[in-house]
Design a protein that fits this description.
With 140 residues, the protein is of the alpha+beta class. It is 26% helix and 29% strand.
Length: 140
C-alpha cells in the first residue's frame, strides 16, 4: 500500500501479481486446473507456456515481443481485474498472465517467474526496467 501510495516502482512475481490484483480490489481463481481441459496444464521452471502480450502495454515496451514463452508454477490466477489495472498478457485459454497499472508509471505483476529465466534477454529487461524506474525515484 505504501509503495502504491508513494508511486514507488513495484514488480509482483507470481503470488506478488495476485496480491497486487487483490490490493486493487480484484479477485482470484482459486484453482485454474479446469482451464486446461484440451491442453495439459504446464508446471515447469522452463519456458513451456505461450503468452500473448497486449500491444498497448508497458510490458510490451519492456519485452519488445508480441508473444513470449514463460514458465508456470502456480495454481491460482487473476479472475476479476482490480481497479486501475489493465491486462498486459494472457494465455490462449484466457488466463491472465500479467497485469499493470493504468495510472502509475511502474506497477507490474507477472504470473510467471522471470528470475528463473536469466538466459532470456527479454526476461532480464523486466528487472532492468524496475531498477531504472527505481533509480528515477531515488534521484528526484
Amino acid at each position: 500500500k505504501q509503495a502504491v501510495d508513494k508511486d514507488i516502482p513495484i514488480l509482483g512475481i507470481c503470488r506478488g501479481a495476485q496480491l497486487l490484483n487483490i490490493h486493487f480490489g480484484g479477485t482470484l481463481h482459486q484453482d485454474i486446473a479446469n482451464y486446461y481441459t484440451e491442453v495439459p496444464r504446464v508446471k515447469s521452471v522452463w519456458p513451456k507456456k505461450k503468452v500473448s502480450i497486449d500491444f498497448q502495454s508497458k510490458l510490451r515496451d519492456i519485452l519488445a515481443h508480441e508473444m513470449v514463452w514463460v514458465n508456470a508454477l502456480h495454481h491460482q490466477a487473476v479472475d476479476e481485474l482490480g481497479d486501475r489495472l489493465k491486462i498486459a498478457a494472457k494465455e490462449e485459454n484466457g488466463i491472465i498472465q500479467a497485469i499493470e497499472s493504468r495510472e502509475q508509471n511502474f506497477v507490474l505483476g507477472v504470473q510467471w517467474h522471470p528470475e528463473y529465466l536469466p538466459q532470456i534477454p527479454a526476461q532480464r529487461r523486466i528487472f532492468a526496467e524496475l531498477v531504472e524506474e527505481a533509480f528515477k525515484i531515488v534521484n528526484k
